[in-house]
Every structure is written in C-alpha cells, then in structure tokens.
Amino acid sequence: MRHAFDFLVYSVAFLSGGVLLGLEIVASRILAPYFGNSVYVWGSLISVFLLALSIGYWLGGGLADRRPSLVVLAKILASAAVCILVLPLVYLPVGRYVADLGFEFRFSVLLISVVFFLVPSVLMGMVSPFVIKLSATGLDEIGRTAGRVYAVSTLGSISGAIAVSFFFIQWLGTRAIVVVLGLILLFLAVSCMAYERKFPDSI
Question: Is residue 203, in this structure, part of any structural domain at all?
Fold first, then answer.
C-alpha cells in the first residue's frame, strides 16, 4: 500500500510540475494576439509564475501542516484545474479588454499575466509542500523527501516544457493545449480522492 501511495503523490508532483511549465510556455501564445511575444511578455510571465510559486510554497507549507490530507490536496488540484479550464473561454475577450484600456504597454502585459496565471500557479505551487508532508514518515528523512519531491517536480517541469514546446504546439491549438493541461490536474484530483476513499487510513 505504501508503494502505491508514494507512486500517487510523486506522480502528482511530476505531472503538476509539467502542467505548470507547460502553462508558462503556452501563456506566451495566449498573450500574443494583443501583446506580441516581446521580452516584456516573457519578463512578465516569468515574474508572475515565480511570484506565484513563492506564495504557493508559503501557503501550501502552512496548510499541509494544519490539514495533511489527500482530500485537501485533491481540492487544490481541482481548483487549479478549474482556473485553467476557464482560460479558453475568457482569454480572448479579457485580453482585448485590457489591451483597449490604454494603459502603458508594460503595465498592461503584467496586469493580464497576473489576471490569467497568478491564481492557478499559486495553487500548483502549493502541491510540493503537500507532497513532502504526506510522503515523509519521520523527521530524520525530511531532507531526503524534500529533495526527492523537488527533483521529481523539476523533472516534470522539464518534461512539460519539452512536450508543449516541441510537440503539443505543433499538434494542437492553444485552446486544446490549455484544456489538456487542466484535464491532467483534474485527473490527479480524482485519483487522490479515489485513493483516499479506498484507503482512508493510509496516511
């Protein structure tokens, strides 16, 4: 049972890392129709995603200490999935609206990056502290567990970046890629809930 649990939570770390970087790659295409693909776009996106991760690590660590549960982790993943799945419905009209407000260009790019990507990225940033908390079986292995989780999450991020930039962008449109990323998180949320129902005393 422990092996199945570890496989689940490390899969969550890997795939959520992949979704995060995949979303960052495709984010440039979401902003491109109204803001182009300049250094300001990438600077805004990188800054917003890193800010979101910082907030997510902080909030996730605190919440994991108070409520270390697969159910809570599933709710975080499902919330991030909803935020991402809403994007294809709103990013064109909202992007047009912000572009037409007449703000200074750099501020507009930063604003739309925050509106679209801050919340889902914060939620995905909360995942790693949760996985560390759920995976560690004692204080003597917290360091090893944290190292493994962040290594797996980073490998997932690399895989997500390569998958989206090398393959998905050629095969799928922007909307379809975003939907796929959201569905991956939704699948992870359902998997966590299913495991918790089957093995309620596993943690």
Answer: no
